[in-house]
Amino acid sequence: MREVGDALVRGIMSREDSALLPTGFVADAKNMRMDDGTATTRNGYVQKVSLGATTYSANYFGGIGSNVTNNAALFKANSMELWDGTSITTISLASSLGAFPDSNEGVQFANKEIVFKGLGEILPVSLSFYLGGPAQTWDGDPANDFQISLGIPETDYGIVVGDRLAVQSDKDQIAFSDLANPSNFDVLNKFTFGKGDGDDVVGMAPVPENAAIVFKKRSTWAISDLELLPNAAMTQVSGNIGCVSRHTIQNIGSAIFFLSDKGVYAFDVGVDASNTRGVLTQFDLRSEPLSKPINNQILAEDMVEARTSARSVYFNNRYYLAFKNGTGTKIYVFNSEIEAWESRDEYDFLIKDFVRRSDDTKERLYAATDGGKLILLEQGALDGAAKIAWTLDTRHYGGNNLDVESFRRGSFAGETSESGVSLTVSLYARDPDSTSSFVPSIPSTADENFLTRFSLRKRGQSLQYRFTGSGIMQLRGMRAELTDSSNNLTTKYE
To answer: Which backbone phi and psi does 48 adopt, to 5 degrees?
Structure first.
C-alpha cells in the first residue's frame, strides 16, 4: 500500500498535465484563497451605493481636508460622486464626458482632481471619428464644480510622476507638465517613443525616482531624469513585450505587473543609490511570464476585449486581474506572499474599475460596476445575500507509471467557518476513466474542525478530487491510499 496526496495547498498550476504537478499545487480553484497552506473560501461582497447610472471609472481622492479626506471618486457622465464611507457628495462636471468606453478617467494631483474626456480616435465598430475634449479640474472644495482646463492636452488618461502630470498627447507621444503645475505643458517636454514603428502607446507607470516606464502594444520604454526636462533620457527596455491595456499595470513594491499578449509579465526596477539624482539603472523583464502556471487560462481570454474592459488592482498582497465575463467579471488572483496564483474569482456584475480606500484605519477594496453600483469586496461571508459558491480541483494522485492501480481509501480535513455549509466530493479516475460523487458528512455548525474518511474503490492510473461547495470552508490534507506491486506502505503525502 502507499499514500499519495497534499498536506498543504500552495497555488494553482492549470497549464501542465495535472498528474505531473508538484506536491501542493492544485489543477484549478474558483473563489478560493490559499494562505498558510489551506484552501479557504474567499470573502464575499456588500453593495454600499447605487448611483442609478453607469459608472465610467473610479479612483481614490483624499488627504487634503476634513471634507474630502478619504473618498472613492466615481465618475458618471455629468458628475463626480465622492463616497466617504457614509454618504455621497456630488461635484458637477463642466461638460458631459460622453460614453466612449476607454476614456473618462480621473487622477488626483495634490489637492486637485483631474478628469480626462478623451483623445479623439476612430471607433473600430462604426468607423466614425470620436471627438475627445479638454480635461476638467476640481480644486478640492465641495462648494465648487469642475472647470475646463485648456492647458492640459486632450487625452484619455494621465499619471503623476514625481511632481509632474504625464499624459498621452498623441498615439506614440507622452507630454509632461511643469513642476507642481498640472495645467501648464511646455512644448519642449514632449517625447515620442519608437517614432514611425506603428506601435501605439498603451499606458505608463511611475517608478523611482522621477522616471516612468512607457508601455506600447509590442514594446516597452523607460524615461528617466525627468527633473532635467527637456533633456530626459529615453531607453527601450523590451522590443518584443508590450502591454494589452493600461488598466492592467500595477506598481507592486519594486516590480511592475502588466498584461501582455503573451501573458502577465513583471518588470523589476532598480536605482543607483550612489547617484544623487536617482537615475534608473536597472529594468529587468522577467524571463518567463508571471502567469506561466495558468497561461492556458489567461491566453484563452479575449485580448481585443481586454484592451478596453480589463482592470486590475493590488490589494492585501494580491494582484487582481479582471476580465469581462459575459455580463459579469472573472478575476485571476496572484498572491505575492506565496508567489502563486490562488484563485479564479467570479462575480455576476461587470466591474468598471477598482478603488481602494480606508475605513477605520483598515484599507478596503471597492468595485465600481457597469450598473452604477459601488461594491465593497472581500467583506463578510455572503455574495450579497447568497452563500459563496466555490470549487477546488486537486492534481491527479498516483500516475507514477502506466500501471492501473487500486485506490482503496481517501481522506481530507477541513473546518467550517459558518453554519449551513454544503460540500460535494467528485472522484475522477483516469484510464480506465470513471466518475462518481458523494456528499460527505461535515459539521453543520460554524468553527468546527473535521476529518472525513471514505471508501474509494476506484481503479485507474491516477485519481483526482473535485470539491464543490457553498459557504466559507477551509480544506487541507487531501490524500488517497492505493495498492501497488510492492505491497508496502510508502508516504508521498507532504
So the answer is: -105, -40
